[in-house]
From TrEMBL:
The lineage of its organism: Bacteria, Bacillati, Actinomycetota, Actinomycetes, Micromonosporales. SUPFAM superfamilies: Glyoxalase/Bleomycin resistance protein/Dihydroxybiphenyl dioxygenase. InterPro entries: Glyas_Bleomycin-R_OHBP_Dase, Glyas_Fos-R_dOase_dom, VOC_core. This is VOC domain-containing protein. It holds the Pfam family Glyoxalase.
Length: 138
């Protein structure tokens, strides 16, 4: 068995009715770098670099716990996209100004991050988070 991972990249594909608005939001406002763009007779696609990818699997109980901590109630569907950012407060303000609906403003979590929740273009619920470092002090 090889030590090389079997999967090389995680790619989340979002179909956005307003492609231009979604592209502006994720590329220009959130700051995801454009890696490639393609067009066909039927439409367009742009591949944006979101840095390192992970797949976070949660059972319904833990998903509800995360929503309770970050928002105060269960709000996410079965998919939520999380982006680690350097400054959660600034990123939340920037994305809200670009049309995202803030569901919950940045909140310190028990796992010592600052997390905000937004409803973004492409009908995606986003968590923005900034790691605050080390376990939270009592």
């Amino acid at each position: 068995m090889s030590d090389e991972p079997a999967v090389r990249e995680l790619r989340l594909v979002v179909t956005a009715t307003d492609y231009e608005a979604a592209l502006h939001f994720y590329r220009d406002v959130l700051g995801l770098a454009e890696r490639a763009a393609f067009a066909s007779a039927d439409g367009r696609v742009t591949i944006l670099d979101a840095g390192r990818a992970t797949l976070e699997l949660a059972d319904p109980g833990h998903a509800a716990f995360i929503d309770e901590v970050e928002v105060g109630q269960r709000v996410a569907g079965h998919i939520r996209v999380a982006f680690q950012v350097d400054d959660c407060d600034a990123a939340t303000s920037r994305l809200a100004a670009a049309g995202a609906q803030v569901i919950a403003h940045p909140t310190r979590t028990p796992w010592n991050s600052l997390s905000a929740r937004l409803e973004a273009p492409g009908a995606l619920q986003l968590t923005l988070f900034t790691e605050l470092g080390g376990p939270e002090a009592d």
